[in-house]
Design goal:
This protein is an alpha+beta fold. 29% of the residues lie in helices and 23% in strands. The protein contains five helices and 15 strands. Strands 1, 2, 4 and 5 form a four-stranded antiparallel sheet that branches. Strand 7 and strand 8 form a beta hairpin. The longest helix is centred in the N-terminal third of the chain and has 24 residues. The structure holds 2-amino-4-trifluoromethylsulfanyl-butyric acid (MF3) and cobalt (II) ion (2 copies). One cobalt (II) ion binds next to loops.
Amino acid sequence: MFIKKNWAVPKGQAPTEMDRKILAFQRQGYLVPKRKLIKTPEQIEGIRKSGVVNTALLDMVAAEIKEGVTTGHLDDLIHQFTLDHGGIPACLGYEGYPKCSCISIDNVVCHGIPDEKTVLQPGMIVNVDCTTILDGYYADASRMFIIGETTPEKKKLVEVTKECLEIGMKEAQPYRFVGDIGYAIQCHAQMNGYSVVRDLCGHGVGIEFHEEPEVAHFGRPKTGMLLVPGMVFTIEPMINMGKKEVHFSREDGWTVTTRDGMPSAQWEHTLLMTETGLEILTH
Ligand code: MF3
Ligand code: CO
Ligand code: CO
């Protein structure tokens, strides 16, 4: 297979230690990042600040989410909070998306559109996904919330999905690969009898909403892009209690549901690769 030669040493510059490491992988045929995916210290600072606001935003949601509240009301709170903190909700108007957040309940896998008609009820498992733009920098994260008491089965799905994110994060070490993350997540999900959604992925983030690389939540070790310090990306596994197949709504153009109607869960962080492992920018 042809692998793009993404990395080069700028003309007239001596190769750094990092250049040498990356070029060695590239020579062996591995996919390496383009230089622009390695954030500068200034960019990292900007994304970090955006992450602080996005985390405060999800903390606010945690305090407000409860039985009887509509998803539309939560979205209004998210809009106001973001503006009050000097940010812009990245979702609003993104490819025509009509709201500030995605709120995905039970069999909705992701991209659920908040509205005034959807009232939160006991037993629901709810993903709230928010992305903040602060001074041009993006931070993207989501959490699961359980409304009142739910079934042990749904509770376990929420917990195992969180473990999937954590296990994926542990695999993400400098000079390992995106495929190492996906492989670990897939193993943990399947060990618990669950399936991994394949049609949607994590992604590079920070300067734009969705950048390279694609971070699949399944895969094989030592495949996909090399992970290099300075890269910023999300891991956001969508794990289904039943089968992995999903359906994309033709009605609203956004809502993704499980084909079999079984529940799905998701957790997401924006992450910075450092010399020693990941730093979570959204907690
Ligand atoms: N926040 C989602 C993600 O994790 C993207 C939502 S795009 C929207 O990548 F337009 F639906 F908001
Ligand atoms: Co994301
Ligand atoms: Co998100």
